[in-house]
Amino acid sequence: MHFACVSCGGQLVFNPPTAGMKCPSCGNEQPIDAAADQPAERDLLVTLEDLRKPAEAQTVNAAPTKELVCPNCNGHIGFIGTLTATRCPFCATPVQRSDIKDAPNRLPVDGVVPFGIDTPSAEGKVKEWIGARWFAPNDFKKYSKAGSFSGVYLPFFTFDAQSYTDYEGERGDNYTVTVGSGQNRRTETRIRWHHVRGAVDVPFDDVAVGAESSLEPDRLRDLEPWPTQAAVAFRAEYLAGSLSRSYEKNLDVCHGEAVSRMNDDIAHAIRSDIGGDHQRIHRADTSWSKQTYRHLLLPIFLLVVMFQAKPYQVFVNGVSGEVHGQRPYSWIKITLAVIAALIVVGIGLGIYYGSK
Ligand SMILES: [Zn+2]
Ligand SMILES: [Zn+2]
Asked: Which of 3, 106, 156, 193 has the greatest number of beta carbons closer than 10 A?
């Protein structure tokens, strides 16, 4: 798929400042003809049952498209129009046209949170984060390893559900007793337990689980909360000029992770329902209803630098501009490598050579 510029025939890309399309060759802008509709919630159980059928009998999957498959990290990366990336956005390995493969059937994307900031703003955020004052320009050359800086959409499944949990347990209340005599006389705190039984209703909205496996889960969680309420129904235009990672963790695996997070919340609700100073949960039977999911793409910018043959990743939330970097074991050396990579990818030169 390709979105052509009506004035010069160039390839339009999504332009975050206007939330429309813009031609990088002639500057022509075209609005995206999109109703700001919310992406549909899909029935979870119906889809999970469909996915258990043989591939040819499944009805929920989208037709195969082309994907770039990284020869190093095996990331499956979708793109719209002509592939312009020369390096994998996740591990900075050079990629070739021959790495483009037919994508397997996949669940269709329901919604996108479009990029809210453009590439120059994201670069500015990374520069601020690095802080120019640490370095001398001469040190850059030693670390002139290749890097990549790309806007990438990451796949998520978000889950909604109603839960009703019937539980049994014990409530513990503290009381004090005086023991001993003479010099040994003292008070001790003891716990009186009694049996309790009850039920809690806990609703869940947009529990978001990352569906790719290349990024550290903790680092992805750092970028939360995601403004999933800002998701709009999927249109390919939003992906023009960006890369998008395809999901590698299936819907049922992601649902399992979501359930484990939701069970933690339910246990928390039970403990506060029990009250007292201590709680024990002996039994919790949850029935679920109104279970739905959405397959969403969420935007990040990803800077990858190679340092001693290992990729280091710096993330920028594509909506808020918040930056999070991988914790380096050698902060200064890694930062030098980051700066060298910024120079290699063509940004940041002025500010660093201009600093003292
Ligand atoms: Zn044009
Ligand atoms: Zn890769």
From this structure: 156
